């Protein structure tokens, strides 16, 4: 049985709101994108042909028929997609997803939170953090995401000049000895800030780059006056975030088409 941190019941809904709000913000920047709500199920289509840019978020109790309708709509859009379900409400939906040949991923994604009063740390020697604020720094961010293993074509579709100069999004690039090798995005929704798109080039992992670029996003949340800073952790990043002081407050299951 998973044991979440004290106070998780109060903090998890705030994290849910930021996750949906973050998706709405990011995907809403893409031409031709669309969002549809089916009861408590919210479907997003960015028009970018990569699974993690499109999907269905189920973060509140949902009638399986509503989730089915949302998946039917996503199917008509024709873009690859996945399903995010909060683990504690997933029971009624798993069978319906299996019937559609969706497969639950073995990494149940921890939802993690940290208070903005945490003491952040400066980057290690050789690492500098640069914020995206013009065309040149946007190119640095794209280079860092590609160095981290993301496909350049879809990333260029996603990371457009619409990211520059917004009040609710801040993007950070970590450079090691001047070379872009790490990235993060902070998104402000209401009284919560979310840390998204953290990644590091494989060749420099273990040198504090991921920690540094995550702290930059945490600092952005502090600057916005957020009451809570949240993220969803990959398997690779989990130990880093725990050492930084993030606590697990819940879990999201991820379901993907099997073939």
Low-confidence stretches: none
Ends distance: 30 Å
Beta-sheet strand percentage?
25-35%
Number of domains: 2
Alpha carbon gyration radius:
18 Å
Number of helical segments?
7
Q: Give the averaged pLDDT, no decimals.
A: 95
From the structure above, extract its key features.
259 residues; alpha+beta; Aminopeptidase; 2 domains; twelve-stranded mixed β-sheet; 7 helices; 34% helix; globular
Element layout with pairings:
Elements: H1 8-28, E1 34-38, E2 41-45, E3 55-58, H2 64-77, E4 82-86, H3 91-99, E5 102-104, E6 109-114, E7 127-131, H4 135-147, H5 152-158, E8 169-176, E9 179-189, E10 192-200, H6 209-224, E11 228-232, H7 238-244, E12 247-257
Parallel strand pairs: 3-4, 10-11
Antiparallel strand pairs: 1-2, 2-3, 4-12, 5-12, 6-11, 6-12, 7-8, 8-9, 9-10
């Amino acid at each position: 049985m998973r044991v979440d941190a004290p106070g998780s019941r109060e903090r998890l809904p705030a994290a849910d709101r930021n996750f949906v709000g973050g998706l709405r913000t990011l995907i809403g920047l893409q031409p031709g994108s669309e969002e549809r709500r089916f009861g408590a199920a919210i479907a997003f289509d960015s028009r970018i042909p990569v699974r993690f840019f499109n999907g269905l978020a189920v973060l509140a109790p949902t009638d399986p028929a509503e989730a089915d309708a949302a998946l039917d709509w996503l199917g008509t859009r024709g873009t690859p997609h996945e399903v995010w379900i909060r683990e504690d409400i997933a029971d009624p939906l798993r069978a319906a997803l299996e019937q559609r040949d969706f497969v639950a991923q073995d990494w149940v994604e921890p939802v993690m939170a940290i208070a903005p009063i945490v003491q952040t740390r400066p980057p290690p020697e050789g690492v500098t953090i640069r914020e995206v604020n013009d065309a040149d720094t946007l190119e640095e961010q794209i280079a860092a995401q590609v160095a981290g293993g993301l496909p350049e074509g879809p990333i260029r579709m996603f990371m457009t000049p619409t990211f520059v100069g917004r009040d609710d999004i801040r993007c950070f690039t970590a450079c090691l000895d001047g070379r872009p090798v790490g990235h993060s995005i902070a998104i402000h929704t209401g009284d919560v800030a979310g840390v998204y798109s953290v990644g590091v080039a494989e060749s420099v992992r273990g040198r504090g780059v991921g920690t540094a670029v995550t702290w930059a996003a945490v600092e952005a949340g502090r600057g916005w006056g957020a009451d809570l800073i949240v993220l969803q952790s990959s398997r690779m990043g989990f130990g880093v975030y725990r050492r930084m002081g993030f606590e697990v407050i819940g879990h999201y299951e991820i379901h993907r088409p099997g073939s």
